[in-house]
Amino acid sequence: MSVECEGVFEIHHDSFRSMVSTVSTLHRLYTGLTWAEGPAYFPALRTLVFSDVPENRLYRYDECNGQTSIFRSPSNHSNGNTVDRQGRLITCEHQTRRVTRTEHNGTITVLVDRAENNKRFNSPNDVVVKSDGSIWFTDPTYGIDSDYEGDKGENEVGGNLVYCLKDGVLHVVARDFEQPNGLVFSPDERRLYIVDTGGTHRRGGPAHIRVFDVGEDGVSLTGGKVFAKCPHGFYDGLRIDSTGNIWTSAGEGVSCYDGNTGTLLGRIRVPEIVANVCFGGGPKQNVLYICATTSLYSIRLAVNGCKTF
Ligand code: MG
What we know:
The chain is an all-beta fold. It has a single domain, classed as Neuraminidase (6 Propeller). Helices cover 1% and strands 47% of the residues. It contains 1 helix and 24 strands. It has one helix spanning 142-145, and strands at residues 4-6, 9-11, 27-42, 47-52, 57-62, 67-72, 78-83, 89-93, 98-102, 108-112, 127-129, 135-138, 162-166, 169-174, 180-185, 191-196, 208-214, 221-229, 238-240, 246-249, 253-257, 264-269, 276-280, 287-300. The chain has a 6-stranded antiparallel sheet, with no helix packed on it. A 6-stranded antiparallel sheet has the order 6-5-4-3-24-23, with no helix packed on it. β19 and β20 form a beta hairpin. Magnesium ion binds at residues 80, 125-126, 181-182, 236-237.
């Protein structure tokens, strides 16, 4: 089936036309990375922080002057990052198998480094913060499978779980994932979307996004049906716009799905494998940053990222 294209945009549904500016161009902002991942945007600083996982570094891109520089090295092979409701950096660290917070004064606080029964996590991968301050993160094995993106190690937990850290208490919110990965809440926080990339470890394994209902207690999930299946490669990270559409990495591109129906609305073609995306561009949040293998890209959209603080 032929797909209509306008510039770098593939139009899979008419509604996508109003979500993009077809004259918008894809900018390569920085290159020379090994594996760009984990973008997190600080509106007040107009700065994007992102990881180069194998190279053991965090970078920052300053959207005011277009400069990219090293923010933290070594980064303990950090992967996913996000910004909490107070504007602090939250980071998943593979090597140290923990989740940390960079405080306003620059010190680093370990938020959690032990799972159930005092076992070490595998390698926290991606993280999101809910409006109640709870921190939700996934814990696949990628950072302990080899020394490439962490330190080769044992799966002490005996599974690859999804967790919620609320008021200092760690809750297991999902146990039935093969390799849980990116995650994002719907704008009203009543649903949580979680990627499973289990197909990297088992032929025919998951390459999909599941959607859960968040319980009234704020720390439990129900449902979990498959929301979307990746036709090529794997989803990894994902973000949501203000109207609830999902923007996610998917092979050589970014795919946009209707957050209610899972319908593919459109794609942005990117010349490298995409790992993760993040909205930025100041208070409008209408620029999509794209971490794609060796490079950081951006493209201006006609939608706005879901504001989380
Ligand atoms: Mg990931």
